[in-house]
Amino acid sequence: MIIKKSRLTFVGAGLTLALTFATASNATTVVEGVRQTTVSYADLDLTRSADTERLYRRLQNAVKAVCVQAGVNALRERLRESNCSRRSMDDAIVHINSQQLTKLHILKLKDKGATLLAGK
């Protein structure tokens, strides 16, 4: 029996992820000082490219909501945000375990690396 996990919850400033069937909204919340958000993808067919892209954008938005704080300029905090974002996205991709999503993530990372190397 295959059970499709349809929600991904980012917890602990993105450091821990938990898959859940909860019906929580997609809004970012703070529970005991920990920011978290839930991403639903029950409406998506991850074998379709357009839906995979849609989920990737949802994950990017969730990572920003959990990891990025407005008005932070200190280098240490910016590095923390960057590490949180990278680990959270990587963990989400692994937990969802979709070949299409993994391929898209690798492609996005390569594109980002090429952009950084080009100095853009």
Word description of this protein:
The protein is α+β, with helices and mostly antiparallel strands. It has one domain (7-117). Helix content is 50%, strand content 16%. The chain is built from three helices and four strands. It has helices spanning 49-67, 75-96, 99-117; strands at residues 7-11, 16-19, 29-31, 34-40. Strands 2-1-4-3 form a four-stranded antiparallel β-sheet, covered by helices on one side. Helix 1 packs antiparallel against helix 2 and helix 1 packs across helix 3. The N and C termini lie far apart (47 Å). Mean pLDDT is 74; it is low at 12-25 and 116-120.
- The H/E string reads EEEEHHH
Uncertain segments are: 12-25, 116-120
The major sheet is characterized as: 4 strands, antiparallel
Mean pLDDT rating: 74
* Radius of gyration computed on alpha carbons: 15 Å
Cα distance spanning the termini: 47 Å
Count of helical stretches: 3
The helix fraction, in percent, is 40-55%
**Number of spatially distinct domains:** 1
**Strands across the major sheet, in which order?**
2-1-4-3
Secondary structure category: alpha+beta
Write down how many β-strands occur, each being a DSSP E stretch of 2 or more residues.
4
From the spread of the alpha carbons, the general shape counts as: globular
Strand content: 15-25%
